[in-house]
# Entry
Amino acid sequence: MKLWWLWRKREKELEKEIQHHLRMAATARMERGASVRDAQAGAQREFGNVGLAKETARDMWGWRWLEDALEDLRYGLRVLSKNPAFTLAAVLAIALGVGINVGIFSVLNGVALRQLPIPRAEQVVSVNQVLHGRFSRNVHGEGGLFSYPEYLDYRDHSHVFSGLTGYEPFVEATLAGSKAEQLLGALTSCNFFEVLDEHPPLGRGFVDSDCAVPGANPVVVISDDLWRRSFAADPALVGRTIMLNHSSYTVIGIAPSRFTGTEVIPSAFWAPITMQEALDPGGDLASDNLSWLAMLGRMRPGLSPEQVRADLSVIAGRIDQQYPGRTTSLLISKATFFGRPAEREVLVPIASVVLAAFGLVLLIACANVSNLLLARASVRHKEIALRLSIGASRWRLVRQLLTESLLLSLIGGALGSLLAFWSFTSITHFVTSQLPHEFSALSVNVAPDLRVLAYALALTLFTGIVFGLVPALRSSRPDLNTALKGDGSHSGSSKKSGRFLRNTLVGAQIAVCMILMLAAGLLLRGLHYAQTVDPGFDMKNVATAFFDLKRQGYEEHRATGFVQNLRERIASLPGAIEIAQAETAPLSHDWSADHFTVPGLAAKVAIEYNHVSPEYFSVVGIPIVRGRGFEAGDGRDGSGVIVTESTARQLWPGEDPLGKTLREDTGREYSVIGVAKDAQVSHLGELETTYLYFPAGPKDNLRTYMLVRFASGYTAISKGIRDSVQSLDPNMPVDVVRLEDYLDVWRSPSRIASALSGALAGLALLLASIGVYGMVSYTVSRSVREIGIRMALGADSAEVMRLVVLQAMRPIVIGGLIGVAGCAAVSWVLSSMLFGLNARDPIAFISVPCFLLAVSLIASYVPARRAMRVDPMVALRYE
Amino acid sequence: MNERYKNRIELLQGTLDLLILQTLLWGPQHGYGVSQAIRANSGDLLKVDAGSLYPALHRLEKQKWIGADWKISENKQEVKVYRLTAAGRKQLMKERSRWEQISDAIGGVLNPAKKESAS
# Structure
């Protein structure tokens, strides 16, 4: 705008200067005696071409390009507004393509690229480590985390931070109350709120003395959300105690309302790390070789992450000296949600596949616009040829045409981005509502920021160039002779190459559309498979409840008493048939595995296992096919093990597995007493995996799944179980679910993926059929004369139409085949969501192409029918 | 061919620049004044085409060899008046010595005998 104003000013000044010159020259002539009119005319004559002088002077300003661009812009706007139908179609296609891409990117940006929503977040870095070489290390959470002594070392000996905090994310705790509530929080070092610069508006944050002695300071800061939800925003709560996992904690502060923690799943509470023993027995303050703490540091002003890395690496090197053969490299990154390497490893592949899929839809939209431009270019052929022949350079014309397509893409992109900014909330809502309910309150800020705007702009410009360049280059090719002869569009060579380009574009559209539709088809098949799969065990009419008694403060003896009492009470409930206990319930996303030595096999094998009570096999309906099941006498100290059929086949092929031995790393030996039928108890869709069952003992009561087979009436039995638990221990959290519910968790990613890919494939199909329709109707309208001649020579209309459709189908079939091949090559990326379904599932790979073929047949048949109605007489006079 | 054409333009341009800079050495002047001064001082031999004069003035202004101010003339009109800058003064010296070299060289080619006899 300022530039424009400056330009106007220059322009005016130049005008004034030249007028002054003319006046002075005229005055001089009048002084020599000429009449006023003669003097003015003479001055004009002497001056010469005023316009040219101005033009040349303006060139001196070095602004020629701007002027040209403005001229192109004006011309482009005029051309676009003269063809409203074309402009509307192109703008809508681009808006759709760009819009969905910007929408998905802003979600991604909110999830993983934005800085943490804390004050001066740009100073805060996340520190992670990668260990190389020979080492053994215990991991509680993610491998890139730190131990408590390591954290203290970095905190006390680094010089680059104004503060470094260490914390354990995702700590579960049960809040006692009228209804026990399961919370997710964090154990933090006591400078946590200082470093993040989030100071509780009510009460206080932690102070150093809170972390002085392990186990001595049961204090807690709770989130604003929890405060409002469970304590009615009572300001008097500060100073009172709440019960977490059966011990009391004093609430010392309420966190600021916009602070939801450092993870994408909001935290409900923060407790000093020294309370670890009570809140998360999995951690260990003393161990210096246990990964469990994440670190966030606030850099001193003016330092770069590289300097931070250099400083911390000195400390890392010193720690490495205690572990010969191990080297540590540190990763310093801006603090974001999903920022730790272990989290990125999960996110990046998913995000790339999603972005690629959305990008493909944009590509189809681009091809549509390209095709429209090509079609229009042949209409504008004469105009372009004329401009070329009177001396416009080809570069100048390409620039003009590109300006037009950029104008289109900018309008479409702006419209699409606006729509995206409006609709992103519903997209996020859709995705989060499909997640399991613990994740439902994801703190994702999807509002557009500079990064999203830059992405939208880059995408828009890229789009404009992608769809505009080929038509621009092609239509500005100097081919004056034929074009000026007035019949450019019908000249042989140009027509042929134009058709080739259009066919390529439509073929590409179909290929891309085919890939998206096949992916959607596969995912839908996978979802259907997951809905109807027989996991090999009977999940109907089984209620499950999980108890983590150790966390609730029970020791083995009390736990055994609790479990026995509970089993008696449940057994007396009407409708309860049989009760079993297991270390993990089938498909509960809870796994245990260990390495075992098998005599006769050189390498150790990693095998998943479960500790189960004798009733387990009959409760979940897994038959014992050989040997025997467990009996009441079998306990943890017993040496019997039950293997699955696949395990027996893989470990002892062709032999009788009964009596074979397995050795634990501790040296303990087990011998096979029975063989159970294969069942997908661990991973849905994986049948032929190895799996062991050990007998459960009293120790397993500390952490156990109770499985209850009932006759009918789930509501009654679940209420019965809950009441039994409440009567034994009113503060015990209890969550009764159906065994089938675990299956639902497995299906949810596949449900999101199939809904998203289905919507994308639908869009792709719509855009591609518009493309096919456009191409065929264009071909028909351009060859009306040819058709007319054919008909005049006696071809019947059905034959003509068949010719048109066949011609149209050739690029479609070729594109479709390419798409099928392409999808077959990459469909393995979906295999984790197909539950054992072949990634080249024949049903999907046959039905989807047939469907697409049928749709494109219709899309070409409709415009092709017009060819039948061509009247030879009219056609021959056409043009 | 192209190269020679470019050289010719540069020579002509250089000459016009020289004339403009030299004219402004005597004091600030507006565009018409510059053209009249060149014309008068060359004894009506050199007529500067306005279509070349204004582009040249604007180019020199962009190169910061001359500056421009808007003033009010006697008959109450706004006039753009050009003046020589310090950089322009230096450029003028350079152009002058170059011009003298060229004119000496051309003189030498045209009158070889005279040069020989002088030495």
Notes: Residues 486-493 of chain A have pLDDT under 50 and may be disordered. The two ends of chain A are 46 Å apart (CA to CA).
